[in-house]
Amino acid sequence: MGPATPRHASTMREQLRSGGIIGGYHLGQCIHQGGTGSIYGASAPADNDPGFPIVLKAPYLGHGESAIGIIGLEMEQTILARLDGAHVPRFVAAGDVRASPYIVMERIDGESLAKTMTHAPLAPEEIAWIGAALADAIHSIHRQDVIHLDIKPENFLLRPMGEAVLLDFGFARHARYPDLLAEEKEFAAGSAAYVSPEQLQHDRSDPRSDLFALGVVLYELATGVQPFGQPETFAGMRDRIWRRPAPPRALNPDVPPWLQEIVLRCLEPAADARYQSAAHIAFDLRHPEQVALSGRATETQPLGVVAQAGRWWRQRRRDVALVPSVRSGGRRVPVIMVAVDSEHPDDERHPALQAATRQLLSLYPELRLMCISVVKAAPLGEGPDALDTRTGRHLEHKMRLRHWVEPLGFPPSRVSLHVIEGANAGGTLLDLARANHVDLIVLGAPGASERALAWWRSVASNVTANAHCSVHVVRVPERRTEMEPDSA
After folding, report:
1. Running DSSP on this structure, what letter comes out for residue 3?
2. Which range among 215-229, 265-279, 452-466 shows the weakest confidence by mean pLDDT?
3. CA separation (Å) from 131 to 15, 293, 451?
4. Is 209 within 8 Å of 198 (Cβ atoms)?
5. Which of 306, 361, 420, 476 has its CA 20 to 30 A from that of 272?
6. Share of the chain above pLDDT 70, in %
7. 111-327 belongs to which homologous superfamily?
């Protein structure tokens, strides 16, 4: 596993500006600057012109930047390239995440729902047609095995003809591809105001999470405020698991009962009590006279302190059982986690580890493979070179992992590569294995430098002693250190 050539950390940021060129694409005006990256209008090379307007999206790299932008871009590259239809931008091209990470997609002509939201509360009829368009877009991606998991006004554009287009799939999950965010991050969710109860319980596998977030958007369109506010702490976000928001009619008496029924049903804490598909929401919004009304449809007052306390107590007693995970149903695909030391690409254990992994893959072709590299944190203060920054180190070691796994010839849809910063490699591996329900951990035995230490001080011994699953330790055969005597 050969090392890559380090790049200067500022190169990508220097290119990421109006007038810059990335991957042959000329950048125009900056359209959006987010927390982890920017979007620019772009023009394609003459030999690769898709025939429609395009934008280029790239993460920030270099000093002080988080690797989350790179991980999100990887997810978006994987997912957007496999989506089609009028409700998503058309995918054009993607840069190699190891060298120049970017994604090129169709530029959508339309108005942001965030701009429309500034005029809230809207008339019920307008909410109905906008909400139905949003539900159509969500249903379209759900039919293609994708959950968005970051539904919010900023991620919708409304075309002039009324169709809604979903943007930003950096937090999304595809049922047939590895979920990099769930496997790398302790908490991977979207914006605090819109996140669902099941996401707060670390479940990214339920499409009904998008329906909860749609309910938040509809509530905001109807009242001009968000049902759970903008909590700044995890504890504040968890209140929505038990707390019922004020009924929309308490804030806006013009909200009709049928619309309140739809909104509050979307916002049910238990996923089983919500709508079960976005298509059903779209139908009800287009046919309000057919909405089945319950008692909540006519409520005009928030629940009192005693009633809210009762909901909190009941929720506390059944907290574990609140959200049934979709992943728990059906036959679970076995997961094998391989620990790869990308800090030392010339380590003699790599060929033996690859051979053992190849053998396991041949025996169990249906399994999922996670390749993990636990690396040291970037130097304090970050230096001028790429390897002295968090994003630079992440890209470098991700490239080494790709180089390591390529000879195995395993389908990309069944492999995920993870670069994790951590001071305690053994503890990090154990935490990841538990969080991802790993069935087998594969790692190398202590190297020559570690054998001088006691066995109990090695990463392998720590993992073997404390893992919740089986551990396969790969040992390199001892080499003869002395020459045979000359027989002459």
Report:
1. P
2. 452-466
3. 39, 18, 64
4. yes
5. 306
6. 79
7. Transferase(Phosphotransferase) domain 1 (1.10.510.10)
On the question of pLDDT at 380 being above 60, the answer is: no
Domain with CATH 1.10.510.10 in the chain: 111-327
Report how far residue 367's alpha carbon sits from residue 430's, in angstroms, rounded to the nearest whole number: 19
Q: 471, 413, 417: which is closest to 445 by C-alpha?
A: 471
Hey, what's the torsion of the CAs at 457, 462, 465, 468, to 10 degrees?
A: 180
> Mapping DSSP to helix (H, G, I), strand (E, B) and coil, where does residue 27 land?
strand
Question: Residue holding tokens 């041949």?
Answer: 362
Fold of 11-106: Phosphorylase Kinase; domain 1 (3.30.200)
- State both tokens at 240: 């929505």
Which parts of 114-170 are beta strand (E)?
A: 146-147, 156-158, 164-166
Q: Please name the fold of domain 331-474.
A: Rossmann fold (3.40.50)
Residues in the chain: 488
Rounded to whole angstroms, the Cα distance separating 281 from 210 reads: 12
Helices (H) and strands (E) in the chain, counts: 17, 16
Residues whose CB falls within 8 Å of the CB of residue 484, separated by 6 or more in sequence, listed in order: none
Question: Taking every pair of C-alpha atoms in the chain, what is the biggest distance, in angstroms?
Answer: 105
Integer Cα distance of 66 and 390 in angstroms: 6
Strand partners, 156: 166
pLDDT (average), residues 318-323: 46
The single-letter code of the amino acid at 452 is A
Residue ranges, comma separated, of all CATH 3.30.200.20 domains in the chain are 11-106
DSSP-H helix ranges across 2-103: 11-15, 68-80
Query: So what's the pLDDT on residue 384?
Result: 55
First and final C-alpha spacing in the chain: 40
Query: Which residue pairs, CB below 8 angstroms and at least 24 apart, start in 299-308?
Result: 299/247, 299/249, 299/250, 299/260, 300/247, 300/249, 300/250, 300/253, 301/247, 301/250, 302/244, 302/245, 302/246, 302/247, 302/250, 303/244, 308/242, 308/243, 308/244
Q: Compute the distance between CA of residue 287 and CA of residue 283 in angstroms, rounded to an integer.
A: 6
**Which tokens sit at 395?**
């890209």
* pLDDT bracket for residue 461 (50, 70, 90): confident
Q: Which residues, 6+ apart, have CB-to-CB distance to 345 below 8 Å?
A: 1, 2, 3, 400
